[in-house]
From TrEMBL:
Family, per entry: Belongs to the DszC flavin monooxygenase family.
Residue ranges constituting the Acyl-CoA dehydrogenase/oxidase N-terminal domain according to the UniProt record: 35-130
Name the record gives this protein: Dibenzothiophene monooxygenase
Keywords: Flavoprotein, FMN, Monooxygenase, Nucleotide-binding, Oxidoreductase
The Acyl-CoA dehydrogenase C-terminal domain, residue ranges: 255-389
Amino acid sequence: MTTLPQQHLDALIPSSHADGDRDAVLQARFADVFERIAAGAVAREQNRELAYEAVQWLREAGFPALRVPQRYGGDGVTLPQFFRLLTRLGEADSNLPQILRLNFGFIENRLEGDDEAIRERWLTRVANGELVGAALSERTASTHNSVTLTRDPHDSQRWRLNGEKYYSTGSLYADWINVNAHDGEYDVNLMVRGNAPGVNRLDDWDGFGQRLTTSGTTRFDNVEVLEEQILLRHRLSEPQHDTFQIAFYQNVHLATLAGIARAALRDATAFARAHTRTFGVPGKSSPRDNPLVQRVIGRLASLSYSAESLVNALAESLERASQAREAGLATEATYIALDVEAYQAQQIVIAQVLEATTLLFEVGGASATSERLRLDRHWRNARVISSHNPAIQREQAIGAFHLNGTPPSERFSLAHKKDVNQSEA
């Protein structure tokens, strides 16, 4: 029997002709790292072993700096290239894209709005291997920022940071933590060293999935902040510039989900090939030749293909918007269209990946539920990722847009702010 190699199957996922050759180089560059990460995924899950080693492998390979422009020392990959690689990382271990999500969002923020001095300072650091995490959100349902930034009474160029954040995704792995605070007049976005005196990072995330993302509490006790660590001061009541950050952050989640679908197909296929008994068939038999097992695998392959194709399509739209922005041609309509596309993709990818992570158990019956295999991690991780952002609100926003032309950002401004300003585990 002839088996089509996985790289041939991957070629079915759409990519532009211009990206093709570099895609192959990038995939080859990270193949070994992804393989090592995947090899330890089950053990890390079973032991709740934080992924410090895996994160270090990615740092050494330059993965966190993929989107940093070459002039600052990064790779400057396109958004479609980036999201295809992120999907492969999600296949290896879905905790890793989420650990790095705020690092990648931080890069996009710098590319979008900062002056050159800030952009060069921080992007060069990321290119040199320094990792960014975040402590942006709080447990409260309010949009109030309870973390305070007050001027040091002894030095006008220094500040003191106090308070507590939750959903601090990736902070325990990070060199720098991006923090939202309030100085009494303005909301302030700033950076603090992860190991600075007074910073206390806790691994108290208690979700049943994505357990290794360190998405718990970060406390700040009189942490010193220099003026150069402050990125932005603004009032929440002030109108914000149009941005593709919402669609970008959402596609990171969708790429992670598409990676989980690939992992579900991979593990279901490996399980069926290795076994010599088909459910419901006494004695020795070949699951790989059973039409019902073949049908399950066929469905899993189709769900994975669809999810990955939607991620790639949204990545292409993000790339076009990025190019329009750089050329000064992006308009409000550009960003509204991105939001709508991201929300529509979210509805489909979530449903497809949750179906895939349940369906994979149909290839093996009760033996597929073994703790040794931890196949349940795919559903648990997908379910947690799918819960981060309000999919049901987004579906209503899509309908309101098509019926009444209401921009999603107007209808669900708080949901937008939540998506941009927190990784939510």
